Amino acid sequence: VIRRMIEGAATLPEWVKARSIRAFQLLAEAEAATHGARPEDVHFHEVGAIDSIVDTVGTVLALHLLGVDEVFASFVPYGAGTVWTAHGLLPVPAPATLRLLAGVPMCPGPPSASGELVTPTGAALLKAIVSSFGRPPHGFVPEKIGFGAGTKEFPKHPNVVRVTIGTVHDLGKPHANPQAVGGSPVAARPAAAP
């Protein structure tokens, strides 16, 4: 259903459709492996909501419209504690999130931010769009900075994500580096010829 919705969006560029569909495919594979099912049989609970589709497609479309060629992300904070889901109380990171983040460098989140810091949808989006995790590449020159805020409240820590768009001058091509506060995204655009 989600794939058909995205493929049927006539005005979306193919680049946006492909990466958005990839994120949901990765999510379906992780959920299927977690529950012993086939990806095509996965019923999305929390992630099936329209807002997850809008968040995913909107993020990929924004990268396209901003002319971002490559995305780099900080290490991903794994959170702590438990989270309530459609499947009951689960440890953080939730099993599907952890499967999606296999091979991705992780770090502890802020001590005051207990709970889920990366959702399965967020992890799938990172896997679908990020080229590499860690520090921004050498030669990255920040040009624009944006922030987004989530609705979950942490007592002593902001629930925000920062995106920095800039150019990697030693590579001559644009990049994006996503990082949550404690890790922030960064996006790069192509560098102008010297």
What topology emerges from the helices and strands here?
Elements: H1 2-7, H2 14-35, H3 50-65, E1 70-73, E2 76-77, E3 82-85, E4 88-91, H4 95-100, E5 106-107, H5 120-129, E6 130-133, E7 140-149, E8 160-168, E9 173-180, E10 186-188
Parallel strand pairs: 1-6, 2-5, 8-10
Antiparallel strand pairs: 1-10, 3-4, 7-8, 8-9, 9-10
Region (Disordered): 174-194
Keywords: Nickel
Protein name: LarC family nickel insertion protein
Give an overview of the whole structure.
With 194 residues, the chain is α/β, with parallel strands linked by helices. It has one domain (2-188). It contains five helices and ten strands, in the order αααββββαβαβββββ. Helix 2 crosses helix 3. The longest helix has 22 residues, at 14-35. Mean pLDDT is 84; it is low at 179-184 and 190-194. Keywords: Nickel. This is LarC family nickel insertion protein. It comes from Phaeomonas parva. Residues 174-194 are annotated as: Disordered.
Tell me the β content.
Answer: 25-35%
Computed Rg: 17 Å
Number of strands: 10
- Structurally, the number of domains stands at 1
What is the residue-mean pLDDT, rounded to a whole number?
84
The termini sit apart by 47 Å
Number of helices: 5
Structural class of the secondary elements?
alpha/beta
Unreliable residue runs: 179-184, 190-194
- Could you state the order of secondary-structure elements as H and E? HHHEEEEHEHEEEEE
Kindly summarize this structure in a few lines.
The protein has 194 residues and is an alpha/beta fold. The protein has helices at residues 2-7, 14-35, 50-65, 95-100, 120-129, and strands at 70-73, 76-77, 82-85, 88-91, 106-107, 130-133, 140-149, 160-168, 173-180, 186-188.
